[in-house]
Amino acid sequence: MAHHFQIYKDKAGEFRVRFKYNDEIMFSTEGYSSKASAKNAIASIQKNGPDADTVDDS
């Protein structure tokens, strides 16, 4: 599996989502109180991500 989303519980007991590519963490989300909310975050990224603009602040 070259890339995937991972749902995990942090030390505070909140659910978070990581996106991993070749075992490297590319990004993590904020903490969510429920696993369903974490799954909704994944669905939103999958739906809206392909059309996201790139902002270059350099």
Q: Measure the end-to-end span.
A: 33 Å
Radius of gyration: 13 Å
Helical content (DSSP H or I, runs of 4+): 10-25%
User: How many DSSP helices?
Assistant: 1
Q: Spatial order of the strands in the main sheet?
A: 1-2-3
The largest sheet is: 3 strands, antiparallel
Strand-residue proportion: 25-35%
Look at the structure and give the mean pLDDT: 95
Q: What is the molecular shape? A: globular
**Unreliably modeled segments:** none
Secondary structure class reads alpha+beta
Total beta-strand segments: 3
Order of helices and strands: EEEH
Structure description:
The longest helix is centred in the C-terminal third of the chain and has 14 residues, at 35-48. The N and C termini lie far apart (33 Å). The model has no long low-confidence stretch (mean pLDDT 95). A 3-stranded antiparallel β-sheet has the order 1-2-3, covered by helices on one side. Helix content is 24%, strand content 33%. By secondary structure, the chain is of the alpha+beta class.
Report a brief summary of the structure.
This protein is α+β, with helices and mostly antiparallel strands and 58 residues long.
SSE topology:
Blueprint: E1 3-9, E2 15-21, E3 24-28, H1 35-48
Antiparallel strand pairs: 1-2, 2-3
Keywords:
58 residues, alpha+beta, 3-stranded antiparallel sheet, 3 strands
